Prior knowledge:
This protein is of the alpha+beta class and 591 residues long. It has 15 helices and 24 strands. Strands 6-9-10-24-23-22-19-12 form an eight-stranded mixed beta sheet, sandwiched between helices. Helix 10 runs parallel beside helix 11. It is globular, with a radius of gyration of 30 Å.
Amino acid sequence: MFMENEYRTQYCNAVSEKDIGKKVRAAGWVENIRDHGGIMFVDLRDHYGEVQVVFHNEALLEGIHKECAVSITGTVVKRDESTYNDKIETGTVEIEAEEVRILGKVTEQLPFEVATSRETREDVRLKYRYLDLRNKKMHDNIVLRSKIISFLRNKMNEMGFLELQTPILSTSSPEGARDYLIPSRKHHGKFYALPQAPQIFKQIYMVSGFDKYFQIAPCFRDEDARADRSPGEFYQLDFEMSFATQEDVFAVAEEVLSAAFKEFSNGKAVSPAPFKSIPYEEAMLTYGSDKPDLRNPLVIKELSDLFVDSDFKPFCNKVVRGIRVPGMAKQSKTFFKSMEEFATEEVGMKGLGYFKVEEGENGMFKYNGPIDKFLNDDQRRELAKRCELEVGDVLYFIADSKKNAPKFAGQIRTEVAKRMNLIDESRFELCFIVDFPMYELDEETGKIIFTHNPFSMPQGGLDALLNKDPLDILAYQYDIVCNGVELSSGAVRNHDLDIMIKAFEIAGYSEEDVASKFGALYNAFKFGAPPHAGMAPGIDRMIMLLTGEESIREIIAFPLNSNAQDMLLGAPTEVTEQQLREVHIKVRKQM
């Protein structure tokens, strides 16, 4: 409900034809000033929209510049039909100015034009973020962020989840990313840490008897920036459920995310629930990534068995993967050359083999490429069958180690699809990645370590830990992926103390280590812990996808830059010697 005050009688976007002949006051920022031969026009902008103001008395504009905050009083009149502006809600009317009141002066030259701020260097935009956020697209992004968070909160409340808070001052975690540490004034030489996630506390909520928890949770990790990762802090829709299975978590995630993406997709199709569920091993083989973009129609095929003891040395006894690209044979030599350069210079491959599929004889295809001479007819037939080849196709080959081949194939799959415009930009494709391995070998030490979350429940429970090869044990651990972006990770939690102790023992931790490093859970699980499970979809990445932005900093009001600096306030900054003394800190000079 609008409350009239001394600055305005209505918002800028609310001035309409029903106000014609009425005296109104509107307040906002001067977006533009135009001189039409003695008659001046001002575009006035507030949070809600724009209205045009016409000045017959130029003296009223004295001292007024672009981006001044003003209150303008005048009479609403209808525009001449030839001057209608259908790009704004108020495009058929304007205000004839009678009085202008300057509320906020502009005393310096603007560092950039607000309307084109997104074309300005990012460091300048972040320094003057208050101007950058007046840009309509930026402003709309932050408004949309608010609406999405409100929608998620309402949806979780409707589903019976309690919004509960967890501490910001916490303890340093021995696992995961690098912590942000906070020195204690009262406890000499000891430190708090900002939480990387509310993981321990939300599990303790479950042990405490709360059935369904959620939180729009701030998380803090001292990580380097990426296009889809902001350094410092990020927000997630964190939720946990007692007496719940993996399928229960999936049902909640599908309902919430389907609804949110449909509500804010701006007409784009959204994959319906239930989302496709893809085992990790299948994802790495078929898509070359545990974050597959399912809008990309290209798939990867396993071809290693066709090149055992092959005369073609680059493929001999290697992991060989193939990617069929329909209709690509007609591309130019420059296209193929640029793909080879991408593979060697950007991906780090030794080379990128391929052949073109052409009409052959006796029911056989002809393979136009140097690899063909190393193939026999049985291999040629099997390639055609396994890769579903047709005339005009190109078959790319990726050959490398067991570790590198899937990753390289995934990068080639993505790049080829981009260059061939095969990715359908008109939809959001969501899927679950499931059955992650519980353990892996550390490349440097050769020891068994946890692959991801050490608190995940192993599939098969204690029996699997006692009787299976650790590298064959899978975890009840899962991710949600949308359009090639990881939105969330989650797991069924390991709530059984005996299973937890054995799981950590396999990774080289003694029971004393577990009790010392993870004492809160270790002790809580002695007192009747329920089975529980959850996940935490990333809100920033969700908004980034829904707005179509390529950088996560475009949907955060006050982000750190890519070098983890706050350009607006200047953080990180030096502090006084007195402040350091109070927290018992001495800064060493860099050598």
